[in-house]
Amino acid sequence: MRKGFSGLKVAAIVVCSLALVFSSIGTAKAWVPDRPVEFVIPAGTGGGADVMARFISPLVTKYKLSPKPWIVINKSAGAGAEGFMYVKGQKGNPNVIIITLDNLFTTPLATGVPFNWRDLTPVARLALDEFVLWVNAGSPYKTAMEYIDAVKKAPGKFVMGGTGAKQEDQIITVMLEQTFGLKFNYVPFKGGGEVAVELVGNHINSSVNNPAEAVSQWKAGKLRPLGLFDHQRLELPDWKGIPTMKEATGKDLAYLMLRGIFMAPGVTKEQTEYYVQTLKKVTETPEWKKYISDNGLKAAFLTGPDFVKWLGEKETMTKDFMAKGGLLKK
Amino acid sequence: MRKANLGVAIFLFLIGAIVMFDAVRLGWRWDPGFGPGAGYLPFYLALGILIGTSVIIIKQVRQLVKEGAGDKPLIEEGGLKPILWVLVPSAVMVVLVSVVGLHFAAFLFLLFYMRVVGKIGWLECILVSVLIPVAMYITFDRLFLIPLPDGMIGPYLKLPF
Amino acid sequence: MESNFHNLVMGISVSMQPYHFLMAMVGLVLGVIVGVLPGLGGANGVAILIPLTVAMEPISGIILLASIYWGALYGGSITSILFNIPGEPWSVATTFDGYPLAKKGKAGKALVLSFFSHFVGAVLGVIMLSFFAPIIAEFALKFGPAEIFSVMVLTFSAFVGLGGKDPVKTLISIFFGFILAAVGMDIVTGQLRMTFGSINLMGGFNFIVAVIGLFGLGEIFLTVEEGLKLESTAGGRVTFKDMAWGIKEIAHEWKSLLLGAVIGCWMGLKPGGATPASFMAYGFAKQGHKKSAEFGNGASAGIIAPEAAAHGAGTSAALPMVTLGIPGSPTMAVIMGGLMIFGLLPGPMLFKEHANFVWGFIGSCWIGNILGLFVVLAFAPLFAAILKIRFAIIMPIIVYVCAIGAYAVNNRMIDVYYMIIFGVLGYLFKKLDYPLAPMVLALVLGDMAESALRQALLISSGNPIVLFRPPIALPIMIVAIIIFFWPTISGIIRKRRTSVGPG
Q1: Cα–Cα distance measured from residue B128 to residue A269, given in angstroms and rounded to the nearest whole number
Q2: Domain final position from B46, B67, B88
Q3: How near does any CA of chain C get to the CA of A60, in Å?
Q4: In terms of residue numbers, what domain contains B14?
Q5: Is C462 on the interface with A (CB under 8 A)?
Q6: B145 — contact with chain A (CB < 8 Å)?
Q7: In chain C, which stretches have pLDDT less than 50?
Q8: Confidence of residue A212 (pLDDT cuts 50, 70, 90)
Q9: What pairing do the DSSP bridges indicate for beta strands C192-193 and A37-41?
Q10: Per mean pLDDT, which range of A19-23, A75-79, C304-308 is the poorest?
Q11: Backbone dihedral region of C105: left (phi > 0), alpha (psi from -120 to 50 degrees) or beta?
Q12: Top-level CATH class of A37-129+257-324?
């Protein structure tokens, strides 16, 4: 009886100490995803954000940056509102991240969906996406100024194609209109690739596609870039030749789109840190560098308080542009 | 059949009315120089539904008054019970998903239907209702990485691999 | 042309290497599996395997990914035929005659017909891809919003004969379908329509979810009511006799076969073209057929035409990807993402800068589709055998798989609720003679047709003449109008003939 008792005691001690050891290991090791990570895309398949997420997720597997796979899920309804609201509702769940584009700001402003980027936990800005003014290579306009002069002479006759309504492409169109006193006929399409093809087919007169959306048509000699919406030229071998809007027209027009990652609200600092470090490693891979260069993105990794500050500024700016163009929800 | 006809027509009429209401809010006019507004098509679709269902409703009510409930029942005699035996358990399964997760709800559903409705032997019942959800779990959650809903107790029911 | 031939031979020889051959087999089997399961499609299969292909040579990777796509195309219609549940949007039209044929106990024959038609559609598509890609891409570019709209009108006119007995109910059915399609965000103005502040409604009603409910569950309710069982005596087998019969039958219905394949290859050039293609092919095959009254009761041509169209469209969807850099289908969009991971930029430069890769891919389209036919034929007996399982076992499993499918389309629980509601609606509509086919057609095309219409009108500043602009939209519209009024026109002609004849 006595013996049995002490045996039990020993067992209890062993179990307790084992538990202690394991729990101490648990805390000493940094947090890593304990379930497959849901990588939400608030946009449809084939767009810039979608391609980027589908590019990152296999890289994470390849470089063994996560013990669990990152599963890409599209929640594109309502210009991304579905995806944002979903992540907002996953309070405290560390295994959900979302890739965002500027619809992070424009969707709630244009539709009145109860959502703001502060409802999520900012992780990092991966890159910035540029915008370029494109025309068909067969059109007579060799410079941005020539094109703008032509549009000025025929208000409302020139068709500007863009992705979606009340989003980046329309904001830039409004920017052009207000800066130069023009009137475009803005026609929304579903995706950037579609817009580029409409432009190649001469169904529209111009577009403000991202570099990635038009690059292949451009290299094939079908499209002509007239100006880059940025303060400086893009420092990438293929893209250096495109003049900035300031060089082309004298007006310093710039619009850069966010490609960043957010987490659900209510996650711990440790969990956020894991994603920051992982994404940083992703942006250091050779694959990522080639991807950036092929797609004309601006490498601009940013995290922490600087990122939050930048987001605040970007939000004010977007709201300002949209208010001027009458694109806010009434 | 007439009552059912009437019921479905009224249901569709109501949907038409709701859509009409929203179409007016969205702007249903053809704006010259811009083309149709966001509510243009929904407005006329709703109008079409309202007119169409009105025709059916008037016709059915007239016949109902004149000739009574009518020729043939909607559901054949003895047909309602088997339908409910499918519909109710399916609906219960779907509702249970948020509590116990899809696969476990399906296990209960399979077991219930096969045993109670199908009167199939216990061994076969248990074998099928366990193996099929496990196979589905492996195919979807594991192989194709489509996380199906877990429910509240779902995380504790995961397979160990 | 000659150099194309040379390149093609090279491409085929690359994809015939044992390792690539193995890749193709693995991809095809996996593709058939994702194709069969409703709600899962080629896009899922491809997305899962992309991480694996990162370590491979680009050409091996693309062969694996493309083979999944071919397998999914072949497998998509199996459940349409066996259970009236379409595995993919473009196999909805197959349910119209495939399921009735299976119900008659000829499931094996229906499957064989479907596979052979797929094969022919594929061959036409791959020929196009191999020899005429640049010319056709040039032609595809001519399709702006106005032209797309005319094609949509044409698709609808092809379906005019598919209404029910009561024209009022047919119209209500079409309008209801359009309304379901309109729920969600309006692409042209960015306004939310008929969502009433609900996040769930923002996503609208997914076509596949609606169809799983309306056709799949609705059919189950009808079946249990009649006390009938899904099982059938002769349906559980696929014999060599069936295959011989299938070859004879598609040779006999060569007109519908060719019609389907051509429509498919043409429609596949534009994004989202496979689904309208299958519907259009079905409608035209029915209208032009001598025995059009048999359609809907298991007519062979009613399976052949939409199936050839679906696979033709699926194949030609690869063409805009390699020539224009736009994906012709969701799966192609994911494959395009894969190309970027290989460091290749899809689009017009692919042919010039990476000719070996492109020709390897085209070569694998040949091999993949030929091999695919054998894979599905080998699988067919297995699928047909499902029908032998007792109803009380297979029925709940079907409901379960439908629920998974409905969920997996958008990873949304609400879709599963919708599926049940659509099931009840499908039962009621069928009982009360509201035709379902025009409704699902309106649901799937409503969005596309409306945005094309409004984009065209925006471009023309509200002038509707643009919808009839030559050289493409005008003839298509004229054909559409003639077909729309064909029943009336042919009636008049017949009357005149009979009155003139004897007199």
Answers
A1: 46
A2: B67
A3: 9
A4: 2-67
A5: no
A6: yes
A7: 230-234, 501-503
A8: confident
A9: unpaired
A10: A19-23
A11: left
A12: alpha beta
